[in-house]
Amino acid sequence: MKKVILLCILAVSMFACKSTSVTSTNTDRKAQVAMKGNWEISSVTYPGSQYIKVNSFQIADSECFVGSTWKFVSNNNKGNMALTRASCTAFNSPITWFVNKDGQFILKVLYAGEKARKVREGYILMVANQTEASFQLIDKIDVGGKMTDVVYQFNKVNK
Predict the structure, then answer these.
(1) What distance separates the 2 farthest-apart alpha carbons in the chain?
(2) Most CB atoms within 10 A, among 26, 68, 69, 82?
(3) Quick one: pLDDT band at residue 26, thresholds 50, 70, 90?
(4) SS3 breakdown of the chain: % helix, strand, coil, rounded to 5?
(5) What is the pLDDT of residues 103-124, one digit of tens each?
(6) Cα 133 from Cα 104, distance rounded (Å)
(7) Which long-range contacts (CB under 8 A, 24 or more apart) does 120-127 make?
(8) Measured distance CA(84)–CA(75) in Å, rounded
(9) Is residue 64 pLDDT above 70, yes or no?
């Protein structure tokens, strides 16, 4: 009898401790609809940028993202990003994305032929200062044991 009770307590505690995933939360439709359209990153800023290089999204140096174009489609959470800076290697990829209720921007970069459901890795950034014409995505990186904000400034492109 004691074993049954112990087993029940153990089972209940395992289910009670279930962690929540950012990908399982509800989406913030208002924030997503506001991001619909074509955007360009006008700047990437972080403390120490003159001394430290940041490899953004494991694709390229953060400076290569200045001038990059992004398209967000809010009704199916798909889009595209393209790095076009002359001094950098060109990069173009489809993406999937959404904004959860906690203001977190979830991004998956899809490489040739990949389906979003097969991609298990992605990026979580915070949405800040969102207006009709601009918004910021903020990534947290570890620099010498200290968490530092990398701020991507997006501006709307009228097309």
Answers:
(1) 73
(2) 68
(3) confident
(4) 20, 45, 40
(5) 999 999 887 665 555 555 789 9
(6) 19
(7) 123/57, 124/22, 125/152, 127/31, 127/99, 127/103
(8) 26
(9) yes
Among the listed residues 137, 141, 132, 157, the one whose alpha carbon sits nearest the alpha carbon of residue 44: 137
- Taking the C-alpha atoms of residue 85 and residue 64, their distance in angstroms, rounded to an integer, is 6
CATH number of 22-156: 2.40.128.20
- Strand, helix or coil for residue 128: strand
Give the model's pLDDT for residue 121: 73
What was the pLDDT predicted at 137? 96
pTM of the model: 0.79
Domain-wise residue ranges, the chain: 22-156
Q: In this structure, which amino acid lies at residue 104?
A: Q
CA distance 127 to 1: 53
Buried/exposed 40-54: b ≥16 CB within 10 Å, e otherwise: ebeebebeeeeeeeb
